[in-house]
Amino acid sequence: MTTINLVRFGGAAIATRARHRMLPLLALALAHLTSAPMSAQSPVVTQSPVVTQSGAVQGFASSSLRPGDALRVRIWREPDLSGEFTIDENGVVTLPKLGAVRAVDESVSALKTRIISSYATYVTQPVEVTPVLRVRVLGAVKTPGIYKVEPAMTLGDAIALAGGTTSTGSDNRIRLIRDGQTLDVALTPNATLADSPLRPGDQVYVPERSWLSRNPGAIAGAVSAAATLLWAIRRQ
Q1: Coil, strand, or helix at residue 71?
Q2: Comparing 24-38, 126-140, 146-160, 194-208, which segment has the lowest mean pLDDT?
Q3: DSSP 8-state secondary structure symbol assigned to residue 162
Q4: Are 202 and 138 in contact (CB under 8 A)?
Q5: Are 191 and 204 in contact (CB under 8 A)?
Q6: How far apart are the C-alpha atoms of 89 and 65, rounded to whole Å?
């Protein structure tokens, strides 16, 4: 075999080995680009929500309020008896006519029934009692913080109170955090708080969209670069 043929044979062998070595690296790079890493702020531990005997997910109607939450009382034609009243650090809410009422030792549903029944002693008009919860809205929202929400509001409404999602936020993957753990439940912005597993003290977390969805041109660029590199290797 001539020297020229040896050189050509050796170059082809080197190119073949390089091509075989590059393919796994390219595949790994593409896999990395298409992966959707979880935000560093997002909890990684999950837990299942509490389920009642009927099979429904337990929400705040069957849980108790906490200090800092409030009750909104509305009595028709009785503005002096109506208003929003905050539960103090001792778990007591002070209501007109009723005075100090313990508000943290029973379910929201039972508390409302007891207050309405107590007001029946003083007024004949309809009494409306609405729980007002303090909820933390965190993650990819414009103004994370603590906001007051009501049962008729949706998760989207709660996020709107925090200024809405940022340009990188994903409101179709809302997470509910309780005691530092993410609940294993599916939530959508249209879900009302009354029908959700939200409970007093929970956090509504909006995660970021995946890197790929935030950079749609990256995969096209990566594929183009990979194709160019493979074409160059095959020409050798």
Answers
A1: strand
A2: 24-38
A3: T
A4: no
A5: no
A6: 12
- CA separation for the pair 140, 155 (Å, rounded): 14
pTM greater than 0.85: no
* Residue 184 and residue 156 share a domain: yes
Euclidean distance between CA atoms 13 and 151, whole angstroms = 71
Task: Say whether both 91 and 144 belong to one domain.
Answer: yes
Report CA torsion sign: 198, 200, 202, 205: positive
Largest interatomic CA distance in the chain? 113
Tell me the pLDDT band of 63, cut-offs 50, 70 and 90. confident
Residues 15 and 106 in one domain: no
- Here the tokens at position 211 are 């890197």
- Of the two residues 2 and 136, the one the predictor is more confident about is 136
Residue 88 has pLDDT above 80, yes or no: yes
177 and 222 part of one domain: no
Which range has highest mean pLDDT (6-10, 113-117, 193-197, 211-215)? 113-117
Q: What is the domain range of residue 223?
A: 3-37+213-235
Question: Which conformational region is residue 71 in: left (phi greater than 0), alpha (psi within -120 to 50 degrees), or beta?
Answer: beta
Q: Are residues 77 and 16 in the same domain?
A: no
Q: Which helix (H) or strand (E) holds 139?
A: strand 127-139
